[in-house]
Each structure stands twice: as structure tokens, then as C-alpha cells.
Amino acid sequence: MYKSLTLPLLATLFFHGVILAFIIIDAPEPEPLVKRAKIQYIKAELVTIDKPKAKPVTPVTIKPKKTDDTAQKAALASKKKIEQQRKIKEAKAEQQKVVELQKKERYQKELQQQERQKAKRLAEQRRLKEQQDKDFADAIAQENAESQRFNDTELANSYIALITEVIESNWNRPPSARNSMEVVLAIQMVPTGEVVSVRVLNGSGNSAFDRSAENAVLKAERFPELQQLPSRIFEANFRRLRLKFRPEDLRL
Fold first, then answer.
1. In whole angstroms, what is the distance from residue 94 CA to residue 83 CA?
2. 39, 23 in Cβ contact below 8 A?
3. Which of 119, 183, 224, 252 could join 204 in a cystine, given CB atoms 3.0 to 4.6 angstroms apart?
4. Is-contact 196 188, C-beta < 8 A?
């Protein structure tokens, strides 16, 4: 504000100074009788010049320039549509992925179930076949065993008949022998057919009858035919042989 008042003040002082100079220059020469002049003083005052009031500035409203944003809106709409389509496509792809995964899991479960059922059927078939084979083998073995026992029995009986015939041919019955008499002898032999021992298991009550039976066995001494027998038949039937002696015949 003070800066704006300096120029008018200086101008006023300058103007008054000029007037004062003209007065001094044009003044008449003094008369011989000096007469005191009356000096008039110029009163200088500082004039304050009010700053002109600024006119109120009416704000100018700048209306935005209308632009054609149709293309921009179309681009945004297109972008939004593309984004929506992308999201829909991704959602469908994810859903399809889940469906495929579930389908694959169901297929795997069905395949595993089929494999388990197949393994179970095969195991049952193997079990049945093994049981059938075992039953068949057992039946064959039993049949063979029965056949073997029959054959062994037949073979043993044939050798027993041979031994009985030999002993009977050696037996001399005493006069005191009676049909009611019976003596049981235990005969022990070895695989060569040799008689090792003879002893009375159950006597008849007639010592002469019992001794006659013992002597008949000891007289035979050895049955060489027994060497031809399989060891199982010999061990089962002839290592320890029991013979019953009766006056009318010989019985095992």
C-alpha cells in the first residue's frame, strides 16, 4: 500500500518546489529601506489517494467441451463383454474340469471295484480248483492206498499160507491132542525169513501139544521166500507173526 502512495507524494512535493523557485526568482530587489517581507508558507500535506476499488470479478463458468465419447463407451462395453465372456469361459472350463475329474474318479473306482471282483473270482476259482485237485488227489491216494492194502493183504496172505503149509508139514500131533485144544505161538523173524524165536502166548493146557507146535516152527528154521517181500509188508505182517495151532488144522 505504501509503495503505491510514494509516487503521488513525490509529484506533489516536486510541484510545490517549482512554485517556490519561481517566487524566489521573480521577487523585486529590496528597497534601500529594508522592509521585512512577510513570508507565506505553503503547507504541504500528504494526500492519500485511495486505491480504486477493484470491480468484482464475475467468475466465468467454463462449460466443459462436449466430446463424442461414443467410441470410448463402445470400447469399454466391448472390453466388459470380453471380460464377462472370459470369466464365463473360465467358469465353464473349471466346471468341465471338475466334471472330468469326477468322471475320472468314478471310472477309477469302478475299475478298482472290477479288479477286486475279478481278483475275488480268480481267488475263488483257484480255491475251488485246489480243493478239487486235493479231493481228487485224496481220492486217488485213498484208492491207491486201499488197492495197495488189498494187494499187500493178498500178498501177505499168500506168504502166510506158504508158511502155514511148511509148518503143518512139520507138525507131529501127539496122541493126546484133542479137537478142543488150541495153542497160540508168537514167532519172531528177520527179513531173510530166518526164525529168531518162538514162544507160547496162550497154551492149550497140554504141554505135549504145545511143545509139538513149537517144534514144528523150529524145524522149519527159515522161510527164504520172505526175502522177496517189500519191507513194509514184512514189517507189518511177518516180523512178529502169531499162529494158532489146533489139532484139526492151523489158524492165524
1. 16
2. no
3. 183
4. yes
Count of CB atoms situated within 10 Å of the CB of 207: 13
**Helix, coil or strand: residue 25:** helix
- CA geometry: angle at 133 spanning 130 and 138, to 5°? 120
Q: How far, in Å, CA of 72 to CA of 90, rounded? A: 26
For the whole model, what pTM was predicted?
A: 0.47
Contacts of 49 (CB under 8 A, 6+ apart): 5, 8
Whole-angstrom Cα distance, residue 148 to residue 112? 52
pLDDT at 137 over 60: yes
CA 179 to CA 223: how far, in whole Å?
Answer: 28
Give the residue with greater pLDDT, 154 vs 46: 154
Provide the pairing of β-strand 195-202 with 250-251: unpaired
Indicate if the pLDDT at residue 249 is higher than 90.
Answer: no
Domains identified in the chain and CATH numbers? 1-28+35-51 (no CATH), 92-252 (3.30.1150.10)
Within 8 A by CB and 6+ apart from 20, the residues are: 42
